Amino acid sequence: MRKSSFERNTKETQIKISVELDGKGKADIDTGVGFFDHMLTALSVHSGISMTVKVKGDLHVDCHHTIEDTGIALGQALGQALGNKSGIVRYGTAYIPMDESLAMASLDLSNRPFLVFNCDFTNQSCGEYDLCMTEEFFRAFAFNSGMTLHINLLYGSNDHHKAEAVYKAVAHALKTAVTENSDGSTLSTKGVL
């Protein structure tokens, strides 16, 4: 079974996460940040990866620790569920429109973490979610799962739509990348990732 559970407890956040790669995208998300819950639900549903994410964070400070630490924990859980990353398609790319916005994500589950993030937002926040945390979340997620991740927001005017297009583009790229390949081999000239 391609699934994992992960807990991370610090003085700033207490996080419990479980993921199931073949779970059909059932989402049970509660981070205390409504817009972030909405984005993680989209990430789960559109990737087909079932996720339970329960977070208690120091939201009296701001949303930073909650969002970044969730990225760390979710990345760790994904990496554990993938094991040695053999038997998967490995790569995924998706362009996703959200009304007037268009985002592209391309990723490689390579054990070589990297993030390229080319997205501009107009406003500071959507609800209690600071839009600058979008980059911090995906950096933590990519580095802790061993993912090379490129995200480009091509255009858009509504920040809600822009952020949602980004999360959904990553979700669809991830859905392709975690798909099991036909022979269970490791897609690498080295033979290992």
TrEMBL record:
PROSITE patterns: IGP_DEHYDRATASE_1 (PS00954), IGP_DEHYDRATASE_2 (PS00955). GO terms for molecular function: imidazoleglycerol-phosphate dehydratase activity. Pathway: Amino-acid biosynthesis; L-histidine biosynthesis; L-histidine from 5-phospho-alpha-D-ribose 1-diphosphate: step 6/9. The keyword Cytoplasm applies. Pfam families: IGPD. Its EC number is 4.2.1.19. GO terms for biological process: L-histidine biosynthetic process. It is found in: Cytoplasm. Keywords: Amino-acid biosynthesis, Cytoplasm, Histidine biosynthesis, Lyase. It is an enzyme of class 4 (lyase). GO terms for cellular component: cytoplasm. Signal peptide: none annotated. The keyword Lyase applies. Gene3D superfamilies: Imidazole glycerol phosphate dehydratase, domain 1. It catalyses: D-erythro-1-(imidazol-4-yl)glycerol 3-phosphate = 3-(imidazol-4-yl)-2-oxopropyl phosphate + H2O. PANTHER family: IMIDAZOLEGLYCEROL-PHOSPHATE DEHYDRATASE, IMIDAZOLEGLYCEROL-PHOSPHATE DEHYDRATASE HIS7. Belongs to the imidazoleglycerol-phosphate dehydratase family. This is Imidazoleglycerol-phosphate dehydratase. The lineage of its organism: Bacteria, Bacillati, Bacillota, Clostridia, Eubacteriales.
